[in-house]
Amino acid sequence: MERPSEIRLHELHDVVDAFVAVRSNVTHKGEPSFDAINRAMKSPRFARYADKVEVVTVNENVARADATGVNFAQENYKTEWVTTEMKTRYANAPDTIILFGHVDEVRSIHWFPYDRVGV
After folding, report:
1. Please, are residues 5 and 49 in contact by the beta-carbon 8 Å criterion?
2. Residue of 28, 49, 29 whose CA lies nearest to 37
3. Tens digits of residue pLDDT in 25-58
């Protein structure tokens, strides 16, 4: 069975220059996270995608879970960090198109509005 991450990599591999996978060292509850992405990228199953995948770890713990055990401050921080990092990396590349989404938000290459961006 294919996982959402594998579907995304398969669908977009031939049309993107790079994938940046961002993980956090803690969960949204502030607990240590399991590093599934680096483990997966070292497996034979994902080997064909490894040349285009960069894994970045956000090493900040801003999560403060409330009585219900849920707080998405960590996810919000990670999203803000990614946005800032991508703006910095590609500040001198105005033609760069960056698509942001979570791994379970799989887009196919047919979804992208090429006609709107002049590709």
Report:
1. no
2. 49
3. 887 777 788 888 888 888 998 888 888 888 888 8
DSSP 8-state symbol, 21: E
Is the sign of the CA dihedral 70, 72, 78, 82 positive or negative?
A: positive
Distances (CA, A) of 2 to 58, 100, 101, 118: 26, 21, 18, 32
pLDDT given at position 57: 87
**pTM, to two decimals:** 0.71
CA-based R_g, the chain, Å = 16
- For 60-71, give one letter per residue: b (16+ CB within 10 A) or e: ebebebeeeeeb
Helix (H, G, I), strand (E, B) or coil at 51: helix
- 19-24 vs 53-58, strand pairing mode: parallel
Among 42, 36, 33, 35, smallest CA distance to 3 is for 36
